[in-house]
Structure formats: C-alpha cells, structure tokens
Design brief:
Strand order of the largest sheet: 5-10-2-1-13-15-16-14
Oligomer: single chain
CATH architecture: 3-Layer(aba) Sandwich
Pfam families: AA_kinase (PF00696)
Order of helices and strands: HHEHHEHEEHEEEEEHEEEHEEHHEHE
Number of domains: 1
Bound molecules: adenosine-5'-diphosphate, N-acetyl-L-glutamyl 5-phosphate
Strand content: 15-25%
EC number: 2.7.2.8
Subcellular location: Cytoplasm
Radius of gyration: 20 Å
CATH superfamily: Acetylglutamate kinase-like
Number of strands: 16
CATH topology: Carbamate kinase
Keywords: Amino-acid biosynthesis, Arginine biosynthesis, ATP-binding, Cytoplasm, Kinase, Nucleotide-binding, Transferase
Largest sheet: 8 strands, mixed
Pathway: Amino-acid biosynthesis; L-arginine biosynthesis; N(2)-acetyl-L-ornithine from L-glutamate: step 2/4
Distance between the termini: 50 Å
Length: 304
C-alpha cells in the first residue's frame, strides 16, 4: 500500500470519528427526505442518493423518502402533446394530466427509487418499499383552492386547478409499522392522494413531505432540490432562517416560483413540531450526509 493510500484511510477514519456526536443525535430519529424531480438528475447520481438512504438506515436513522417528478411528468405530457400550466407552482391537473402524473409518479419513479434502495442495501438486507398516498389511507386530501385578484376590479377570483389536492389528513400507521418492523425498510412515498369520496388527486411533493414530516414528528425534513438553498437578492446562500424570516422571504419576493411552496411547507412543518427543515442541493453527491453528520451542514436551515 502506498503512503498516500494509507493517509487517505486515516483521513476517512477521522471523518467517521468526528461524525459520532451527529450520528448519536439522529439515533432512532425520523428524517423525512423530499427528493425533488430536479434533484434526480442522472441515474448515477440517483443511485448515490439511494446508497446514502441505505447508509442512514444502517446508522440508526429512520429515513422516509417523499419524491417528486415534476420535470418527468412535463416531459411525458410533452410527448403526448398535452400542455401544462402552473399556478403558484401547482400544475393545473385535468383528467388526462392526472392519469399521466399518477403513471409517472406512482408507476415509474416510485418503484425505481424503491428498487435502487433495495439494490444498494442488498448486503445488509435494507429494502425500499414504494407507496403512494393511496396505500392504507396514508394521505387523504381535499381539492386545493386558489384565488387570484383581478387587476382591474381588484375582485378575488377562484381558480380551478382541477385534480390538485391539499393534505387533509396523514395517517402515519403504515409508515410507523415499516419504521418499527424488525426488517430494515425505507418507505418511499409518491405524492398522490385520495379524497374522502375516493377520487385520486395530484399533490405537490413538497407539501406531501411537510404533511408526512408533521404527522411523524420528524426530527428533520430535508428538501433536496437543484439550488444550494434559499438565495438572497444577490444570489448568496442564506444559511439560516427563522419561521418569521421565511415568511418575509416570500412576502418581499426573495423567494419566487418553486421556492414558495418549499418555504410554506417548511413553515408548516416547523409549526407542526418538526425541529428544523433544510433546503439543500440534492444534485451534489452525499448532500444528506454533509447536512446531518457535519458541524457546518449544508443549504438553508429553517427553524422556529
Ligand atoms: N430565493 C430563491 N433561492 C433559491 N431558489 C429560488 C429562489 N426563488 C426561486 N427559486 C427557484 O426555486 C427552484 C426550486 O424549486 P423547484 O423547481 O420547484 O424544485 P424541485 O423540483 O426540486 O421541487 C430553484 O431552481 C429556483 O429557480
Ligand atoms: C400539484 C402539483 O403540482 N403536483 C406536482 C407533483 C410532482 C412534484 O411536486 O414534483 P417536484 O417536487 O419534482 O416539483 C406536479 O404535477 O408536478
């Protein structure tokens, strides 16, 4: 063995030893991970994500994955010649769009992530389990309501988003059962919900992650996306935000587009008892490990 290789080994051991207090901090704690469609990127990166989820489980953390797939739904709709429009970051969802969204989210992406986790965890028998809000009454939703103000008359107008749902109730029993099972399972949840009447709805994945994290009283919720975190007006990373500052970031227009549902979700999750939410770049390999197990962390941390 060369001196260089040996030195690298010592450096790895030092890093592991330094992670001990952080590993203990998250021992048997639930961490909800929102894996966004933009963070998925190339398959090799997505497989690294799956391997890190397995590592978390083996370190004693209980990871629960909620995934998105917005860009992948848009690509499929494009191929079918269906146009998509978004209002406040939410996809207006008619019947045909709903069908495609469910196929892409529950059918393709969900099973792929669950399978990658199972493959990455084969040696230690950690297994991914792919679910959607339709399973075991996991996610009951109501139809989302949005209003806009008519610039001329200043009257409020109701906008119909179609089959877009808002979480009404998360029943965490199935997830709890998987977390506490003797077998090591990593639940992977697609953002599809069902109304009391049994209608299928498309739900923003950030919103689902927040509702799930709140219901499970998770220690952390990590929102993995394609930016370093919340950026200020000059494009610099904001390391920490209180809930009040997160509100301000929305109000003052620092956060726009897809960052708005993320901050709203973060605020709601912290209000529901989640200790902190972190928005970070999921395209960087091992982002979750840097955030959870190093002093400096990564991205933007939002807490009370
Ligand atoms: N202040 C901000 N800081 C960082 N990103 C922002 C900000 N305001 C708006 N954004 C946008 O939010 C996007 C992340 O949301 P979104 O595209 O919905 O991600 P995902 O698919 O991962 O859920 C960023 O790529 C960026 O374009
Ligand atoms: C209602 C609504 O907008 N649903 C989203 C669900 C997927 C999602 O949220 O994916 P990302 O996290 O990758 O953006 C959609 O149809 O795109």
């Amino acid at each position: 063995m060369s001196d260089k290789t040996e030195e690298a080994g010592w450096a790895t051991a030092k890093t592991l030893a330094e992670a001990l207090p952080f590993i203990q901090r998250y021992d048997r704690e639930i961490v909800v991970i929102k894996y966004g469609g933009h963070a998925m990127g190339e398959e090799a990166v997505a497989r690294l994500f799956a391997a890190d989820a397995v590592l978390l489980k083996l370190l004693g953390v209980h990871p629960v994955v909620v995934h998105g797939g917005g860009p992948q739904i848009s690509a499929m709709l494009d191929r079918a010649g269906v146009k998509s429009t978004f209002i406040d970051g939410l996809r207006v969802t008619d019947e045909a769009t709903m069908e495609v969204a469910e196929m892409v989210l529950s059918g393709a992406i969900n099973k792929e992530i669950a399978n990658w986790i199972t493959i990455a965890g084969r040696e230690a028998d950690v297994r991914g389990v792919g679910l959607s809000g339709k399973d075991a009454r996991l996610l009951t939703v109501t139809k989302a309501r949005r209003t806009t103000r008519d610039p001329g008359s200043q009257m409020e107008q109701v906008v119909d988003l179609g089959f877009v749902g808002e979480p009404k109730k998360v029943d965490p029993m199935l997830i709890q059962a998987l977390i506490h099972a003797e077998q090591d399972y990593v639940p992977v949840i697609a953002p599809i919900g069902v109304s009391e009447a049994g209608q299928t709805f498309n739900v923003n994945a950030d919103t689902v992650a927040g509702a799930v994290a709140g219901a499970l009283k998770a220690k952390r919720m990590l929102l993995l996306t394609d930016v370093k975190g919340v950026l200020d007006k000059n494009g610099n990373l904001i390391r920490q935000l209180t809930v009040a500052e997160a509100f301000d970031a929305i109000k003052t227009g620092v956060a726009t587009g897809g960052m708005i549902p993320k901050l709203e979700t973060a605020i709601a999750a912290v209000d529901a008892g989640v200790e902190a939410v972190v928005i970070l770049d999921g395209r960087r390999p091992h982002a979750m490990l840097v955030e959870l197990f190093t002093e400096h962390g990564a991205g933007t941390l939002i807490r009370a």
